[in-house]
Structures are given as structure tokens and as C-alpha cells.
Amino acid sequence: MREGPDIARIASLVGDPARANMLSALMDGGALTASELALEAGVGLPTASSHLAKLGDGGLLSQSSQGRHRYFRLAGPQVAAMLEAIMGVAETAGPKRARPGPRDASMREARVCYDHLAGEHAVAMLDGFFTRGILDQGKDGVVMGKAGPSFFAAAGIDLSTLPGKRRPVCRACLDWSVRRSHLAGSLGAAILDRILEQKWARRDAQSRAIRFTPPGRRAFERTFLA
Amino acid sequence: MREGPDIARIASLVGDPARANMLSALMDGGALTASELALEAGVGLPTASSHLAKLGDGGLLSQSSQGRHRYFRLAGPQVAAMLEAIMGVAETAGPKRARPGPRDASMREARVCYDHLAGEHAVAMLDGFFTRGILDQGKDGVVMGKAGPSFFAAAGIDLSTLPGKRRPVCRACLDWSVRRSHLAGSLGAAILDRILEQKWARRDAQSRAIRFTPPGRRAFERTFLA
DNA sequence: CGCATGGTTTGATCCTAGTCGAAGCATCTT
DNA sequence: AAGATGCTTCGACTAGGATCAAACCATGCG
User: A210 - beta bridge partners?
Assistant: First the structure.
């Protein structure tokens, strides 16, 4: 008999297919209503409501009521990181899975992870930041490097607005498709915002995939990849 | 209805208390027999056998038969990393938990994570490695730095024996208690080996905690922490 | 107001999955 | 061989939990 964190309790929350679908649907960091999540999970409204209550009690979801709508979102970046970690082993440890099709390929290339960019592009970007001294691996994880401030200013990102919230500015997040780190934290979120704001890419409505336009991809590479 | 990795399948494997206990017991990277795991999980032998079969099919455990014993261990470092991630949210998202007692305090300070050192000491060590140029954050994650070879030679670790296996030499692993990275990979494993071999510390028999002897702690700090 | 819409609660149903006793294999010991 | 030990399989029992229909609140709109 062991002690330690009650891992079974929260794993069993994720272990139900309906709840897992809901959580996956929220992995893009957005907020959805109970009925949307019911649809997403392929389950009736009462069932969904019950599931959502459990996820709320379990601390995986936060809820906010607006009028007669009730919005649910992931409780925080840690929850998203955990889900990515589970996806990682599901991908490799899972039984013979159909090889990732074209849709999955675009997910591998670029997708939203909670509120920041993930996938091959994001991993390459973080690598470049390190080698160019834009970010550094410091005492408290990832930290701003010497070349950082001027770089981000040139890229149109205002660093002064980032601190102040409770979340760290820089954070590393393990990528389940590439299995290397990409940049999370408020800086990661700001970069994704910038990409979308410039209309270099748009979010797929159905999945978490990010689709770059051809000129957008070039602009992204010119700006963020050396 | 979503696609993507079958997250519910593997989360539900972890979601059963008996299986969660077994997995926790294996988090130290060691191998245990079916009966030991049954005891650890507080469950009968037939039940344990059934659980172990499921964990094996699910790809979370690897098994090896030696004589009439059957040994089980975690399938790989990714599985351990996932479990640590789940522990992380269980720790924060969990409901009012009893504040960590003395035993948990020693776990936070130093413990085994699969096959390498985790906890505050390990996080401080990796930080020091980065600032002293012993390791660097390179294109492919953590990589040997300029000062590395001479440093590890002085510390009694033979780098030439490390590569060759399928696992990376250096890897970052997110620490659930401190929520910052520590060093995994074969180099991380070699450092832990060295610490135990020098008898600077011993492993707690019951938990994953690592207990330094007073002179051992000084030697560790002198050797690995600046 | 009255009605529609979004969400929760209740109650009943059903089924999966965890549990163990007993019997069955396999392997080691004597 | 005969016995002991470690583990798995089989069979039966049970409990927990997922599900939905129907009734019940709450909010917004005309």
C-alpha cells in the first residue's frame, strides 16, 4: 500500500471515453458550453452534465457561468501538459494503430497546445531560440536570453505586458508528437497570438491543427526561425 | 467525436487503484514479481495477475520470465514521465490533501525517478550544470557542454560507456514536486549509480526516497553542485 | 407574464470490470 | 517422482458507474 498523490483518482477521471473526448476538445485552450461538450463526447446532455461536475470536482476543469450558458475550460497548463504526456504514451505504447493520416500529419506539423504553438514548427522554433541566445536555460527553467528583448521587439511582441499574471513567462512543454520540448508560458501564448493576428495561419475549426498560408509560413520562418 | 491517440484507454489503465499502486511501486525503475506487486497493491494474486496482463497488453509494462518468477517493470522512461505528470496535477488539482508530512519532505528533497535522481537536489544539480557549461541546451534537447567531459571524468563517471544504447544520454524530465526539470537519460542514471556506489546515500526500502548520509551530502554538494 | 432554451437532478436500468476461491500449469527443489 | 512454489485461468459474485428519460430550476426573450 502506497501513499503519495492520488494518481488513480485523476487518471480514472481521464479514463472514461466521454470525459477523455471532452478534455481533448478543450486542449486548444478554448472554453466550451456543456451542450457543445456533450456533442463532442457523443453523449446525452444529462450524462455530460454529470461528467462535467466530476471533472470540476476533480480540479481538471474550471467553470464560469455567463448568463444561461456555462463555460468549461481546462483548469490550467499543468492539466494540458499531463494530457499531452498521456497522448505520448498512447501513441507509442498503444496497440497497432493506423498510421497517422494526412490530417494527423498537419497536427504533427503545427497545432495548438492549450494556448501556445506545438508540433514540429514549435520545436524547431524553441531550438533556434536557444542557439541564438534569445532564450536560455537558467536556474528557473527557461529564461530570457541576451538577444531576447530586441528580437521580440522586432517580431512585434511586447514583453512588458507579459509578466504580472501568476503564470511564468517561459516554460517548456513536452511535445507528444515529436517528443521534444516546445515553448509554453505567456510568451508562448503571445507568439501564437501574434501569428494568428498577422493572419499567417488560421486555426482549424474541427481539430487543434494550425494551417499556415504559403506566404504566412515564409513570414513565420523568416521571423522566428533564424 | 474526436480521433487522435486513444488517451482514455491508457488513462483508464492507470485509473484503477490497484494498478495505480503497482505502477507507483515500479516508479523506482526496478523490477518486481507478480506476488510482490499483489502485496504492494493490497490485492489477491489472481486479481494482480489479471491487472498485470492488462498493463502488459496496454504497453505500460514489460515483462521478463526468469525461472518460475515473472518480473515486471515500467515499459520505458516515457511511461515514468507520464506518471510524474499525473502526480503533478494530482498534487495541485487534488482536493484538500493532508499537508505533506516528514516522509513526503524527504521525497521532495531527493528520490528515484525511474532510474535517475529527482527532487530538489536533482533540480539544483541540473541548473548548476547549465550555468557552468557542463551541459547545454542544444538542438536535440540537452547536450554535453564544453566543460562536461573533464567534469564528469573528475566525478568518476565514464562517459564512453554511456552511448550505444537506444536511449539518449541526456534528457530533461519534469519534476512533479518542484515542477522544474531534472536530468534523466543514461547520464542521469549513471550519476545516481555513482552516488549509490560511493555510499553517499541509500535508497529507502519502502518508498522512492533517497537518504543522504551527512558526509555523503557534503560530498555530493562538493562534487555535483558548483 | 408565458414560452423557449440551457442546464441540473432524480430515478431506474444495465453492464462493465474488479474481486476472490478453486482448480490448472509450469518450474524449481529434494 | 513427489512436493513446493509462483503464477495463470476459470467461474461466479458483486459493486460501481455510465447512461438516458422525465421532471425540475434558471435565465433570457417577446
Answer: A203
Instruction: Please tell me which of the candidates A1, A2, A8 has its beta carbon nearest to residue B14.
Output: A8
Domain ranges of chain B: 7-75, 79-224
**Distance in angstroms (rounded) separating the CA atoms of residues B167 and B78:** 11
Residue B122 or B96, more confident: B122
In sequence order, the 6+-apart residues with CB closer than 8 A to the CB of A48 are: A18, A22, A34, A35, A37, A38, A41
**Residues in A touching B24 (Cβ below 8 Å):** 2, 4, 7
Of A168, A211, A204, nearest to A188 (Cα)?
A168
| Spatial distance between the Cα atoms of B82 and B15, rounded to a whole number of angstroms | 13
Q: Which fold has domain A7-75?
A: Arc Repressor Mutant, subunit A (1.10.10)
Distances (CA, A) of A92 to A44, A151, B135, B196: 32, 37, 28, 32
Instruction: Report residues of chain A scoring pLDDT below 50.
Output: 1, 96-102
Q: Mind listing the pLDDT tens digit for each residue in A151-163?
A: 888 888 888 877 6
Per-residue pLDDT, B103: 55
* B156 CB and strand C closer than 7 A: no
Best mutation target among A1, A3, A7 (most B Cβ atoms within 10 Å) is A7
> Which tens digit of pLDDT belongs to each residue from B178-219?
556 678 777 888 888 888 888 898 887 667 788 889 998 999
* Beta carbons of B13 and A10 less than 8 Å apart: no
Whether B140 shows a pLDDT value over 70: the answer reads no
